[in-house]
Each structure stands twice: as structure tokens, then as C-alpha cells.
Design a protein that fits this description.
Elements (H helix, E strand, L loop, with lengths): L14 H6 L3 H10 L11 H8 L2 H9 L3 H12 L6 H8 L3 H13 L3 E2 L6 E2 L1 H7 L16 H11 L1 H9 L5 E3 L15 H7 L4 E2 L4 E3 L2 H7 L23 H28 L12 H11 L3 H13 L3 E3 L5 E3 L1 H7 L3 H14 L24 H14 L8 H11 L5 E2 L2 E2 H15 L2 E2 L2 E2 L2 H6 L8 H6 L8 E2 L4 E3 L6 H10 L1 E2 L7 E3 L2 H9 L4 H11 L6 H13 L3 E4 L3 E5 L2 H9 L2 H4 L3 E4 L2 E4 L3 H10 L5 E2 L27 H19 L4 H6 L8 H14 L3 E6 L5 E12 L2 E6 L5 E5 L3 E5 L1
Parallel strand pairs: 16-20
Antiparallel strand pairs: 1-2, 3-5, 4-5, 6-7, 8-9, 10-11, 12-13, 13-15, 14-15, 16-17, 17-19, 18-19, 21-22, 21-25, 22-23, 23-24
Helix pairs in contact: 2-30, 4-8, 5-7, 6-7, 10-11, 13-15, 13-17, 14-15, 15-17, 18-19, 18-20, 24-26
Protein name: Helicase XPB/Ssl2 N-terminal domain-containing protein
InterPro entries: XPB/Ssl2_N
Length: 747
């Protein structure tokens, strides 16, 4: 016997009654399938029913159906209410068990209610699918018998049949004077011949309709022009060696992890400032691409991936910096770091591919594309279901996505073909695919939110190494990925020359001065190399360290605003003779003692530029070590995540409401146990007024027009006439949000 996942409510007369009979797991399933119903949290079942039957919510739910589920919904729309599964199966010429399964899916989404022999569609479903489901007109008041239809068509003539064929799948047509009285004797045109014989019916002065029974007979009792598959098309193709594909995929996955780490190091040491709209300039992108050793489009993707995972963000003065989350991320093992990146990528509603389009900038607002996360989720589901090593054709991928989301044609205004091409390319950068084939990381990516990378794949990631190979040409080779802290120290002592797990670092005078500026001594550098080198330190490197150490600190700088102590008279004369010395206000107070009208760091930069190696000191003469790495103080705001907590909260509220409805013994205690996910409107208005008075920036949580939970940081916030207005703290653009969509406000 065939059973569905959701048991129909028994004896329910309305959707509200049907929802009231759902258990906790069924309610959770409903919120999973229709997440917009959890925002704002419904106060009771009646409120949930009202939200579930709104035109916008029903439209979003119908757009999320696959081709077969949508066809079943359309078939039910063409049937009288209530309908039954056998009637539906006859209409669609399909297996009743398969139809019953699709009916169960629609029931889980609260698009219909009732048992299989008494199905009631939500009215908004009928409204959304239009007046002619399946291209069929409503039932005729006086339907023509099938045998009579053929006779009348012969009488009307072959030209009339051509008119019928044009209306066969779209029954309404326009013709002037459609409602005038016509007989077979007075008919002159093909349309008049059809009207005279009731093969067309007038429904207005200028509109005619092909009767349902005529269309159904001439179609051969078909509801659709072509059969709609009841199951998703599978991805098939030539099979590559799975082990080879997985090895290449692991290399790509670790390459991305390494690129994000190198990006963060670059942003720490070199100022990169965001544009006013929050994007990164084209020149800066090209510079980062050179450092990463890759193309601009891949560098843009690395930026977007890091921002989506909240590892980089705009800090003070719009400088792009690593976030405090980056340090925690960097200390995790490579497989776990990859998992965080792929999970953030999957749920990001942005299209990095737009950055390479004319006028595009990575991290800019033009890359925002609601629905991008949906496409990525679909692609990951398809890849995870395919056999590892299966080569994928983009046309085949498009066909599979079309079945799963037949209404999905554009994403953020971009054609689906372009979005799929970008998504497929990004799966290669992530290692989800490799060599144009599905890798073993595909399923791991699909489950990245909830499950760790399988042990077999995690062990395939390059193992970290604690030692490097020093060479006489002043380079160090890391034969594998090095731990986070060791990598920081190595990049302080040397400049990285290659990307990837086995990286090459080069020691030079400037790189060693960088370490000495950070407070290292020559002895500490020697000890570090002896501890982390697999062989003895080469003599050229030893000489270089000692030579740079002797020069370093011969000039001492401190606040005066700044003073300079110099042991060499020739250096003093050369510095004072430089044209920029006057700009900094440098002058000699005593032999070897200079003061400046500039900050110490400006004097240090100046002396570095003209070839000296100064050492900074505080007012007591102690050497100043490097400050802590700069970090962005706020999150990027790029990553919308599935709000599991909101779903759990909504279920808890409704289950608590049901408990109170069934038992009134302890209403107070039960009420205190129910979590709420939204702030009362009165409290929201109070918080807005307080923020307006204090001129504070607040974070507002609300439901976007597409039904997704969203949040923004707003300044100059105010509420008036049921609308919350403010200035987006990131883009500087004005924002208006209906008060009814606001769930909470935090400072």
C-alpha cells in the first residue's frame, strides 16, 4: 500500500483545522518548506493559516515546486472542489500512487488540505495559476458531445481548424464583435463559422474562448503538450577515475583555503580601501590577483568567498580587513576551513561572476542577487546525487535544474544560463567538481551546514608541516601547509613567492627589517630558523640576518611629536638635506639629535623610503614591538544563513498555543516557557525612537519582499505612517521597510 509522508487531517473543514491537527514534526517540516511563514513568528494556528494563504506566500511556495508537483497543483486547479486522487490521475494520465505522493507534498506545504478523496486547494493557488489551468477553459454550461465536435469541424472547413489549433493550449483569443448574433448561414470568416457552431464561445465583446470539451477532445485527452517526468532527470555522462578526480578536487579545495589565508595576510599588511558603495576598485582587484597569482575573476571570487564566510569586512575608514572570526577560522584544520567556506558560499545570495562584468566590483552592491543561494542548493543536490567521476554537461545540468524549478528563468535579473555557468565554474574552484566531473566533495558540500567532512576526504587534505627547507638562494620551501601561527611568523620573516600547499618564501633585507621592526632580534631569528629548518641554516642567510641586524636600529625614533637619534654624522647630514625633511619639520637640536613636527610612524615611513633602517622606541627608550594585527570591528553582512532557531521558535510558539487551547490549568507557567522570535510593535517603536534620539546605528531584522529573513545596519532611523526609514550604514543609500515586516531591532 502506498503512503505519503504527511497524514491528511481527518474531518478538517478548513485549512486552519487541518493545521491544528499537525504534530510538532509536521509543523517543523512546513516551516522548512515555507520558511517565510516563520517571519514574523505566527502567534497561533489561525495566524499561521492567514499567513499561509496570502497571495505572496503562496506564490513563493508554488515557485519552489518542481515540474511534477506544479503540474499536479495545476491539475487540481482544473478539477472541481473538492477533488480526489483518482480524478487527478485520470486527468494527468498518471499512476494514482505517484499522484498521491505529489498531493502529499502539496499538503505538507499547506497548499491544500483534506484526505485523498476530498482535496481542497487553497484559493490563492487557483488565483496564482490563472483562469485556464492546463490551457483549459472552465466547464461549458452546455458541453458538446465528442462525436458532434468532429462533425461540426468538418462543416466549419479546414481554415477554421487552423484557428482551433492556435487556441488548443491557450483558449482565449481576441476578435472584434465576438458577441454578435451569427448563424451558419450568415457566417463568412473562419471565426464566424466556429462561433455559429459553438466551437468557440464569446465571453465578451472582443474575446472568444475555446470550450473545454473541444480542446480536450482535439488534444487526445492530454493535459500537457509533452509528458512531464514524475522524477528528476539524473546527471549521467562518461566516468572519470574517481580517485583522480578526488585528488584534483582536494587540491582545488585546499588552494582556495590557502588563497583566503594569503588574502587576509595581504589585507593586514597593505591598505585596501573600499569604494563608497562598498565594492573594491578594479586596480586593487588586479593588485590582489597578482599577489594571489591568479586571474581577476578568481581573485574576485576569493574576496566574495571570504566575505560570505565573514572572514573579511570593511573596518575603520572603509579599509578592508580580516575580521575577528578570521583568526578562529585560520586555527582550524584545512578540511574544516573548507567546510566553512563552502557552507557560506551555498547560502550567499550574491553572484561573484558579476564582478567581471563591465561596471562590476567585487563586494559591490551590483553582485547582490536574491535567489542565487537557491540555484547553488539545486546544483549541489544534483551533484551529490551523481556518481563520483561523472562528467557533467552544462546543457544536462540546465535541464535538471529546469525540472526542479520550472519557474526559475532569471536570478537577480541575470539569465539562468549565465548563473549556472558561473556556479559550475565556482564548484571547480571549491573542489566540488574537478576535471569537469563530480568529486567526492559534492555530498560533503551539500551537508556542510550540519556534518563534518567525511574522514576519508578530510585525511586527503594536505597534512600540516612544522618545518621548512632552507636553500642557499635565500629561499625557504614549505613542503606542505604550515600551521596558522607558524605561517604568520614565516610571512613576517620572508616574502611568499608562490601559492598553494608547497609554497616558496624568499628572505631579503626588507623582509628581515620587517621582523626587526616587529621587535625580533637577530638571535631570535636565528633560533627560529634552527628550530623550524630541516637542515643547517645556509651561510648566505646567516650573513644577511647579521648584516641587516647591524644596520637596524642605528637610527632611533620616538615621540616629540617625534625625535630621531643618529649615531652617524653623515646620516644626519643626508637626512636633513633630503627635500622631504622640511615637510616633516625635521631639524637638528644637538649633534645626532633631530626632532620632527610629524608623528613617529610618518618619520619611520620617510626613513624607510630613503633607504634607512630605523627602529622605533617609546618615551623611555624601549623598542616598540609591532601592534596586534588590524581587524575589522564589524561583520560583513554578506551571509544570510538558514535560521533554524526561528523555525524552532515558531514551532514552540504554536505547540504552546495548542497546549493552552487544550488545557487551561496553568496558563501563566506555559506562557513563560514559550520563546518568541519577534519584538512587539510597541517595543519596536520605542527602540526606534530611542535610536533616533541618540543618533545611533541599529541592526534591523525584517522579512524582505521575497520572503527571506534579512537584516541591515541603519542610521538616522525613524518610523512614520507604518514605514521604517533610514540610511544603510554600508552603502549610504536610503532604505524604506514596512513596519509590519520588522521582527526585531538590536543596537
Amino acid at each position: 500500500m502506498f503512503t505519503t509522508d504527511s497524514r491528511p487531517a481527518q474531518g478538517a473543514r478548513t485549512l486552519t483545522e487541518a493545521l491544528r491537527q499537525l504534530d510538532e514534526s509536521a509543523l517543523a517540516r512546513l516551516f522548512t518548506l515555507r520558511p517565510d511563514l516563520a517571519y514574523p513568528t505566527p502567534t497561533d494556528i489561525a495566524d499561521l493559516s492567514t499567513q499561509a494563504t496570502t497571495t505572496s506566500s503562496v506564490g513563493r511556495s508554488l515557485d519552489a515546486l518542481n515540474a511534477w508537483q506544479r503540474l499536479v497543483a495545476e491539475g487540481l486547479t482544473a478539477l472541481p472542489d473538492p477533488a480526489a486522487v483518482p480524478m487527478l490521475a485520470e486527468l494527468l494520465q498518471a499512476d494514482p500512487a505517484v499522484c498521491a505522493a505529489a498531493v502529499g507534498d502539496l499538503r505538507q506545504r499547506a497548499l491544500l488540505w483534506g484526505a485523498d478523496d476530498s482535496l481542497h486547494l487553497v484559493r490563492a493557488v487557483r488565483d496564482h495559476l490563472g483562469p485556464y489551468p492546463g490551457g483549459l477553459a472552465p466547464q461549458s454550461p452546455r458541453p458538446l458531445p465528442a462525436e458532434r465536435i468532429e462533425e461540426l469541424l468538418v462543416e466549419a472547413g479546414p481554415e477554421a481548424r487552423l484557428v482551433i489549433d492556435r487556441l488548443l493550449w491557450s483558449p482565449a483569443g481576441t476578435v472584434s464583435g465576438a458577441d454578435r448574433a451569427i448563424t451558419a448561414d450568415t457566417a463568412r470568416t473562419p471565426v464566424e463559422q466556429l462561433l455559429a457552431r459553438r466551437l468557440l464561445r464569446p465571453i465578451g465583446p472582443d474575446t472568444v474562448l475555446l470550450p473545454r470539451e473541444v480542446a480536450w477532445h482535439l488534444r487526445g485527452q492530454r493535459f500537457t503538450p509533452r509528458p512531464v517526468p514524475t522524477a528528476a532527470p539524473s546527471l549521467t555522462g562518461p566516468i572519470r577515475t574517481p580517485r583522480l578526480v578526488d585528488r584534483a578536487a582536494i587540491g582545488a579545495a585546499y588552494g582556495l583555503v590557502h588563497d583566503v589565508e594569503l588574502l587576509a595576510h595581504t589585507l593586514e599588511t597593505t591598505p585596501y580601501r573600499l569604494l563608497r558603495d562598498g565594492g573594491l576598485g578594479v586596480r586593487d582587484l588586479a593588485g590582489l590577483a597578482r599577489i594571489l597569482g591568479t586571474e581577476n575573476d578568481h581573485a574576485a571570487y576569493v574576496l566574495e568567498a571570504a566575505a560570505a564566510a565573514e572572514l573579511i569586512a570593511g573596518g575603520d575608514g572603509q579599509r578592508l580587513l580580516p575580521t575577528v572570526d578570521y583568526d578562529r577560522w585560520a586555527e582550524r584544520d584545512p578540511a574544516d576551513r573548507w567546510r566553512a567556506l563552502v557552507a557560506a558560499w551555498r547560502h550567499s545570495d550574491r553572484l561573484p561572476g558579476l564582478s567581471s562584468e563591465p561596471g562590476g566590483h567585487p563586494l559591490g552592491p551590483e553582485s547582490a542577487a536574491p535567489g542565487a543561494a537557491t540555484v547553488r542548493g539545486l546544483v549541489l543536490e544534483l551533484l551529490a546525487a551523481a556518481e563520483v567521476g561523472t562528467t557533467i554537461d552544462l546543457g544536462q545540468l540546465r535541464a535538471a535544474v529546469d525540472w526542479r524549478r520550472p519557474r526559475l528563468v532569471r536570478v537577480g535579473g541575470i539569465p539562468l544560463d549565465s548563473v549556472l555557468a558561473w556556479t559550475w565554474r565556482e564548484t571547480g574552484w571549491l573542489g566540488v567538481s574537478s576535471l569537469q566531473a563530480v568529486s567526492g566533495l559534492g555530498r560533503a558540500a551539500l551537508l556542510a551546514d550540519t556534518q563534518p567532512v567525511p574522514a576519508g576526504l578530510a585525511e586527503a587534505f594536505p597534512a600540516t608541516v612544522e618545518q621548512v627547507i632552507l636553500q642557499a638562494d635565500l629561499t625557504a620551501i614549505a613542503p606542505g601547509p604550515v600551521p596558522y601561527q607558524l605561517a604568520r611568523e614565516l610571512r613576517l620573516l620572508a616574502d611568499q613567492e608562490s601559492r598553494g600547499g608547497a609554497a616558496v618564501f624568499r628572505f631579503s633585507g626588507p623582509s628581515l627589517r620587517r621582523a626587526f621592526d616587529a621587535g625580533w632580534s637577530a638571535a631570535e631569528v636565528h633560533r627560529w630558523l634552527e628550530h623550524h629548518a630541516t637542515t643547517a641554516v645556509p651561510q648566505p642567510l646567516t650573513y644577511l640576518i647579521d648584516d641587516v641586524a647591524r644596520q637596524h636600529g642605528s637610527i632611533r625614533i620616538g615621540p616629540a611629536r617625534a625625535y630621531v637619534r643618529i649615531a652617524d654624522e653623515a646620516q644626519t647630514a643626508a637626512i636633513l638635506a633630503h627635500p622631504d625633511a622640511g615637510v616633516l619639520g625635521l631639524r637638528e637640536l644637538a649633534p645626532g639629535i633631530l626632532v620632527a613636527a610629524a608623528e613617529p610612524y610618518e618619520v619611520v615611513d620617510f626613513l624607510h623610503r630613503i633607504g634607512h633602517s630605523p627602529a622605533a622606541e617609546d618615551s623611555s627608550g624601549r623598542s616598540i614591538t609591532a601592534p596586534d594585527p588590524l581587524r575589522a570591528s564589524r561583520r560583513s553582512g554578506h551571509r544570510p544563513r538558514p535560521d533554524v532557531q526561528a523555525t524552532e521558535s515558531a514551532v514552540a510558539v504554536l505547540m504552546g498555543e495548542r497546549t493552552r487551547h487544550q488545557s487551561r490549568h496553568e496558563p501563566t507557567d506555559l506562557a513563560t516557557q514559550i520563546p518568541t522570535a519577534e519584538t512587539p510593535t510597541s517595543e519596536t517603536l520605542e527602540r526606534i525612537a530611542a535610536a533616533q534620539q541618540a543618533d545611533e546605528t541599529v541592526r534591523i531584522h525584517y522579512v524582505a519582499a521575497d520572503g527571506r529573513p534579512t537584516d541591515r545596519e541603519l542610521r538616522e532611523i525613524r518610523a512614520d505612517a507604518g514605514v521604517v526609514t533610514g540610511i544603510d550604514a554600508r552603502s549610504g543609500r536610503p532604505v524604506s521597510i514596512p513596519l509590519a515586516r520588522v521582527s526585531s531591532i538590536t543596537r
